[in-house]
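anyone seen this seq b4? input:
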Amino acid sequence: MATNGLMASSSVFLHRPDVRRLAFASRTNQTAGKCGKGRVSFLNIGGTRRPQVVLSMTATADSGEEAVKSVLPGNGISIMVNGCSGKMGKAVIKAADSAGVNIVPMSFGSAAEAGQKVLVCGKEITVHGPTEREKVLASVFEKHPELIVVDYTIPSAVNDNAELYSKVGVPFVMGTTGGDRNKLYETVEEAKNYAVISPQMGKQVVAFLAAMEIMAEQFPGAFSGYSLDVMESHQASKLDASGTAKAVISCFQDLGVSYDMDQIQLIRDPKQQIEMVGVPEEHVSGHAFHLYHLTSPDETVSFEFQHNVCGRSIYAEGTVDAVLFLAKKIRLKAEQRIYNMIDVLREGNMR
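predicted toks r here
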């Protein structure tokens, strides 16, 4: 319909008058204001690898009941969260602690952070710098043989960290984005190490992206001729376009929509985020709101897809599920390989 679209109060917003503001904000009152679900994909954004999506989401054949029970939270599993001083690292520690998983009081950080003590959930965690990593990791792994490392560090550390984990043979969950993704996969594949690697740990969003991939694969060209408007809002510190938006757009492109990634509307101004997008003020510093609006060539038909996230709990909870999934695979002596969040979803044992 010709009136469908986002309120245009400035050049930042999409060109259509008023309904899109309601689409983002009125439903925000029901969902985003309560920390609604959503956010990016399990895809390897920026790389060439793209996990295959299958229609079956049933539990795998090796999901034995005893193995499931053996990795319930609190049953021998320990995690070492690297990047514990960051917001995601702290969120993961809180989620893991709530789930009863043992937190090793050691972590990796930058050279400037070496020797610092980080207090999370009443636990004092010592941060070690780059020069101590191998010695510390080997010692922790020897003391905690069921150790799983969780990595929420920085993009520039991705490849070196993965090489270290693979060298020592420690299973790990990698939530950090960036780095050389092809090299990352090659390193872990060659070492035949257990790992869950995903730039997106939000379980529900991964399921949404999987559904989008299935639709694109099964019905290519279904939206041929349709126009697409995309708006995403993140905290001001995020300068680049969201990997979520890029993943969803790639699906729409496969569905026949012509769209240039440079057209994504990036909302980074806190005032606009609160007043026009509908982001709760307390989550301006940590949120991910996405809106995709499709319009038919004659403007008589429109579709909207929206997913909003407040805070980081959705990613932290998904990370803990990935840890439990990986611990189960290890105890089952399953194939030593790279898994992703689709594998975690397919297992069907999430809390």
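The radius of gyration is 21 Å. Confidence is low (pLDDT under 50) at residues 1-64. kinda curious what u guys think
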